[in-house]
Write a structure and sequence with these properties.
The chain has about 425 residues and is of the alpha+beta class. The chain is built from 13 helices and 23 strands.
């Protein structure tokens, strides 16, 4: 993509309304613009990141045996009345009446709807187990939306749901999601720590939050320092194996938010206790028969008797992750994107746009990167070099290729790594080989 053609309305000054780093940089980098309180439009740069995060989540969900579907944002009120949550959910739920005076709502979550779908489609234990997920926009009418997309009213979420015949198989589904979440966040360059958690309005008696360490995190968290060095399960993981020993290892050491902290544990751990701030990016729940019994979601068991389904729910805040990654990965100059989520891998900077030789060389490099399948943002604008450097650092692309008359004369191009700040002067072929290898 050519910078001269790209819709990227960057800002030079920090917006007054932004209170945290991610909100500041997302506005300044032209990723989002506020539509109304807690509701944002996603501009091309931000939308690229959002799609990359979605794709990682999708790949890891598919790998764990989930199947993707898509449910609507608008749900009928009667299924929520059936589960007993319609009144209990509170003012965060946006309740609407259509032209026929039917009560509907903008879904804050999808337990009722997926249960209604499943109970009408599956009648026998032979069709179990199943793991289903979708990635869809949600709405919760927060009293005080703040911190940009970190605490917005409209947000993109991945929620998956497990359906099983008994507790043992439901626990296997829970463990699959536990491991899948560790892998998902690691691929985004994040270290997410699983912590025992309350189930909140979704309900249930087995629950873990996944928190990313960040100085500006909303929650205070405590954990055994060794858990920070645990290895993330690799590509060799087989989701059909018994994952319980691996889950046991991750849950064997103390890890708790301020809501669940245990002073006795703190005293016992001494200097092994880590106190930090964290951002919640995922939450998994096992809630058994909470919805299947209230909504009569049953299947015929092996003996022909009806059995209420064992269920679980597993959420990831997709849009929230964009902010969380920025909070965990930035410096004074701007965002530092991990490569797998970056909107472009390379920022190509022409230091002398309008110079025939520089233009020709940059066009050749641009074409070669594109032909190699490398996503590149080519800053071809007739702007001062300093402004180009500021913008490229701000938007945080992992690599910068910088070419000007001096480098062209010497047969070299500068390659800068955004995260480390390391700069190397290489031949064009060597630089291209490093970026495409």
């Amino acid at each position: 993509m050519r910078r001269s053609e790209y819709f990227l309305p960057t800002l030079k000054e920090n917006p007054k309304e932004a209170q945290i780093v991610s909100h500041t940089y997302m506005l300044r980098a032209g990723m989002i613009r506020q539509s109304s309180a807690g509701i944002y439009s996603w501009l091309p740069l931000g939308f690229n990141v959002l799609k990359n995060i979605e794709q990682i989540i999708r790949e890891e969900q598919d790998r764990a045996g989930c199947q993707e579907l898509l449910m609507p944002t608008i749900q009928p009120a009667d299924i929520w009345q059936e589960s007993g949550r319609y009144e209990d959910y509170g003012k965060e739920m946006l309740r609407i009446t259509d032209r026929h005076d039917r009560e509907i709502l903008y879904g804050p979550t999808n337990e009722e709807l997926i249960t209604e779908i499943f109970r009408g489609s599956v009648k026998s234990y032979k069709d179990l187990p199943k793991l289903l997920y979708h990635i869809q926009w949600k709405f919760r009418d927060e009293v005080r939306p703040r911190f940009g997309i970190m605490r917005g009213r409209e947000f993109l979420m991945k929620d998956s749901y497990s359906f099983d015949l008994d507790f043992d198989s439901a626990k296997r589904a829970y463990n699959k999601m536990f491991i899948a979440y560790l892998r998902t966040f690691a691929r985004m360059g994040l270290k997410a720590i699983p912590m025992q958690a309350d189930s909140g309005p979704i309900g249930g008696d087995m629950s873990h939050e996944f928190l990313v360490l960040a100085e500006t995190g909303e929650s205070e968290m405590f954990c055994h320092k060794d858990i920070l060095d645990f290895d993330i399960p690799g590509d060799e993981i087989n989701y059909n194996d018994d994952l319980q020993p691996l889950v046991n290892r991750w849950t064997s050491l103390y890890a708790a938010t301020d809501e669940k902290q245990d002073q006795a544990q703190h005293d016992a751990l001494g200097d092994k206790l880590v106190t930090a701030r964290g951002i919640e990016v995922g939450h998994i729940f096992y809630f058994g028969k909470k919805y299947s019994e209230s909504m009569n979601a049953v299947v015929a068991g092996p003996d022909g008797e009806n059995v209420a389904l064992e269920m679980g729910s597993y959420g990831i805040g997709v849009s929230r992750l964009v902010g969380a990654i920025i909070e965990a990965s930035h410096d004074d100059d701007g965002i530092i994107w991990p490569e797998e989520v970056a909107p472009f891998k390379v920022g190509l900077i022409n230091l002398r746009s309008g110079d025939d030789e520089c233009d020709k060389a940059c066009e050749d490099i641009y074409a070669k990167l594109q032909n190699a399948g490398v996503e590149v943002l080519y800053d071809d604008r007739n702007e001062r070099a300093g402004g180009k450097f500021v913008d490229t650092d701000l938007i945080g692309l992992p690599w910068q290729l910088i070419l000007g008359p001096r480098g062209l004369k010497n047969g070299v191009i500068e390659l800068k790594n955004r995260a480390s700040g390391d700069r190397d002067e290489l031949s064009v072929d060597a630089a291209l080989a490093k970026l495409t290898g």
